[in-house]
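Q: Could you fold this chain for me?
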Amino acid sequence: MKEEIEELSLFEYYPTYPRITGNPVQSMCNDLNEFIDFIITNNGINHCFTSHNSYVWSKKNTKEVKHFDKPSKIVLERVFYDFDSKKNMEQCLIDITKMVMFSEKFKIDYSISFSANKGFHFYHHFSPRIINYSADKDDEERLKEYYNGIFYAIHNKLKLKTLDFICQPIRLCRIINTVNPKTGMYCTSLPPDKILEWGIDDVVEYAKKNSGNHKVFIKRFHDVNYTFGRFITFFNIKRLPRSALNEFIKITKTTSGSSGGEENDSRNIINLDNVKFAKTKKKVKNDVFVKYLQKFGFRPCIINDLQTKNPAHTTRIEVVIILRDKFDFTPEEINEFWEELAEHFGYIDIDNHKTRWIQINDIFNRKHYRPHTCLKLLSTRSTLTGRSLCIGKTCPHFETLKRRLRKK
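A: Sure. Below is the predicted structure, expressed as structure tokens.
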């Protein structure tokens, strides 16, 4: 079997459309020209994310597709793994080395990129196959559970310590060779033949020297029959419900994934002049339900975001933490509270009862989670508008936050 390191252009690496892009506000790119326009418009200013696979939509005019709609089918040609550690990037590199050795042993096509922050992205590549997704609820659950099973099996087999367990088939990832606006560094494709020899300093140096280099490297074994289905069959991957994966994460006490109220060090370098503050919801200023929320002591930015159609994940975590720690709510009571919010404000995921219940239990059981700092909320963007969750000078905590930033 012929082996080679294939060099692709950036646009050869993302060959099929339509696909989702995000900055982080999500939108649809129907073809290569729209994809290029998205990068030109956002690169260096906003984050540039894209779905790691392309889609097939049941709607004829994909311009009508909203970012929260789901594709009817997925063109499955790769699986995306995210490795991240705020404190120990060397451990990320060790985990990437394990992934490379595993892929070489079993001759699975792969590519690696430096994430432009605190870790790496790793991809397994397969011969493309169109797989049913949201056209049937069973198809969607099946693919999600196979993804869970892959991450569980890979983590267990290789004893990985920094693998992020957000393993959704429709997850977005940073577009290779675009800038992370928080760090000013490029997400850089790394040559597979060097990664086993390099240390962290070598990786960072290479990323700096090759900023804007549009080459993307894939290690190819040229097995045209190596599909996603063959991968899960060969390694005997079992379907794994998300609830079971969450139990595994708690048991292993993995360092990957969200850390609740912990601050990301990269968030400390913030210029308030460049922050787009959230717009306050004046039209519901006298809403009785808003006054009800104020009784719980939620900060103004959280109450403001709760009035949007799709509150940020950070906001959702905050609600669970406050209700759990200050008011002794049970998961059942929090779920009932959230469904009241969803109905009153018309959340776009109002019917996602199962997913909401799983997420509430997951957050509730993470006892180390604490309310987010104002700095964290300032750095977090709204899912819909792309603006900061912070509402700026209208918040009574804002002057304290400004003084803290000046000290930095």
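A (continued): The longest helix spans residues 137-158.
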